[in-house]
Known about the structure:
- With about 600 residues, the protein is an alpha+beta fold.
- The chain has 20 helices and 19 strands.
- It starts with 5 loop residues before the first helix and ends with a helix.
Amino acid sequence: MTEFDSSAFLKNLTHQPGVYRMYNDQAEVIYVGKAKNLKKRVASYFRMQVDNAKTRSLVSQIADMDVTVVNSETEAFLLENNFIKKYKPRYNVLLRDDKSYPFIFLSAHEHPRLSFHRGPQKKKGEYFGPYPSAWSVRESLRSMQRIFPVRQCEDSYYRARSRPCLQYQMQRCSAPCVEGYVSDEEYAEQVNLARMFLKGKNQQVIGTLVDKMENASDALNFEAAARYRDQINALRKVQERQWVSGTQDEMDVFGFAIRGNMACIQVMFIRDNQLLGSKSYFPKVPSTADEQEVFESFFLQFYLAGNKVIPKQIVLSHTFSDEQAIADLLSSEAGYRVKFYRGAREERRRYLQLAQTNAQTSLDAQYSQQKSVHARFLDLESALERDLPIQRMECFDISHTSGQQTVASCVVFNREGPLKSDYRRYNIEGITPGDDYAAMAQALKRRYKTVEDVQKIPDILFIDGGKGQLAQAEAFFEDWPDDKKPLLIGVAKGTSRKPGLETLILAYSHETLHFESHAPGLHLIQHIRDESHRFAIAGHRNRRQKVKTTSSLEAIPGIGAKRRQSLLKYMGGLQGLKRASKDEIASVPGISPELAETIYDHLHH
C-alpha cells in the first residue's frame, strides 16, 4: 500500500468550505466529510499526536484524497449527504431506511376520496401525516371507515357503479356513486367532519355530531339521530385508543441511545396535536464514529434523503457542532423557519422522555437479538470447523402448485440476520412442469452468472432439498471461475418433517452433519431455510393470484378493455366466446374479420 503524502496534499489546500473524500488503495471511498475550513479540518487528521484510536484506524487506510470546494456551509451539508448516499462509505454513519413516509390523502373530487399515499404530493387535495408506517395509515383508514361514510374506493370503480356496493350495505360508505342515496350537501358534511378529525379536532367533531343528533331528535327523525349517536360512540372509542394528545401542532421528537457499535434513534411524529406514531432506526455505525457524529449524521440524512416533511419544531436529545447552520439549512429546504428545542418545557420534556425510553428499550431488544444471532453463527462455525468467520449465507427454495407458476427464492443472511435488500425471486420458465431439479439449476444460473462484487459471493450456500437439488448446485459450481467458492450444503427434511430432524448434506462428499435439536447453529439453519420457504411461497401465491385475476383475452394484441368488455357481453362470457365461430366473433361491434380470426386462433391454439 502506497503511503499517502499528507503534507503535499495540505500544502495547496484551500481554507474555503467544502467536502472531502478519502480513498483506500482499491480506490474505494471510505469516508466523506464536510468542513467550514477545508485545510484546518483535513489537517486535524494528520497531526503527530491523534488521541482517538478510531481516527488513527481511519487514517491508516487512506491512499488518496480529493476535495470539492463550495460557496457556503449549507452547500457542504447537501453535497456531503449526496456523496454518502452515492458511495455508502464504510467509515460513515449510514441511514438504512430512507423511504418517504406515507400520508392519508383526501382528494379534491366532487365526491372526495380518502386513500393511502406515498411519494411526491402532486395530486390536488389535502395530505395528512406523515405516519410512521403503512400499517398505521391503513389502520387509521379502517377506523375512519367505521365512523365517516366517505368513499375509499378507486376512481375507476367509483365511476363504473350502477348500484351501491357492499361497503354501503355495511354502512361504511354513503354511496355517492349512485344518485338518490346521499345528497351532495350531506356527503360534503361527512367529508368536512373527516377532515376535522384528521386535523386532531376530535372534540369539535363530537360537539358537531351531538348538535346534529339533538336537532334530528327534536325533528322526530329518530333514524338520523341513531346514526349520529353511533358515530359519536365510535369516535369516542377511537379517541380512547389515541396514544398521546397535547397542544403541539407540528413537531418531531428524537430520542437517542447507543451501546458499543449499535445505536437506536427513536423518532416520534406529532401532527395536529396528536402523536401519529413513532419509529425506531438502527443506522450502520462505523467503529470510528463517536456519539455526536452518529446522531448528527443520522439527523441530516433523515431530513435530506427524500420526501420527508420537515416540521416547524424539532425536539432533540443532543446538540450539534454547527447547530445554527443546520437550522438554516432545514429552514431553507422547508420554506419556513425551523426551530430546535431541548425539552425544557413540560410538554416537550414529556415527549422527549418518552422518545428516550423507547429508544433505550428498542436498543436493548435489538442488542439481545444480535447476541442471539452472533451465538448461532459461532456455533455453526464451530460445527463446520471454519477458521474464517461466516459473513454471508444464502439459501434457495422452489415453490409451485402441480408444476404451475414455479417460483425460486434466494434469501440472504449476514451476521446481523436477514439481509432483505438482497433477497431475490425468479419466475421459472421453459422447464418440464414439476421438475424441481431443472428449476433449481435455472435459478442458480440466473443468480450467479455475473457476480461483480466478490463480497456478494456467499460463504455458505444452502439448498433446500436432498441430493438431487444439491447435485444441481455441484454441477453449476464445478467450473466456477472465481477463487472464492461457497460451501454447498443440502438441507433435507426428516422423515416426519419435524424441526430438529433435518439432514444436512455436504456437497461432493455427501457426508451428513449432525446437530443436537437444541443447537444454536441448527436454529440458524432452520431460520434461513424457513425464510427461503416463506419467501418462495409468497412469490408463488402472488403469481398464481395474478393468473386467476388476469383475463386470457388480455394477451391478444389489439384487444383493449372496451373490446374485451364487448366480446364478453355479446358472447355471454369467456366460455361462450370459446364456443363461438370466427363469423360469430366478427359480428360483435368493433371486431373486424381479421381481428376475429386472431382472437379465434389465440383461444383455440
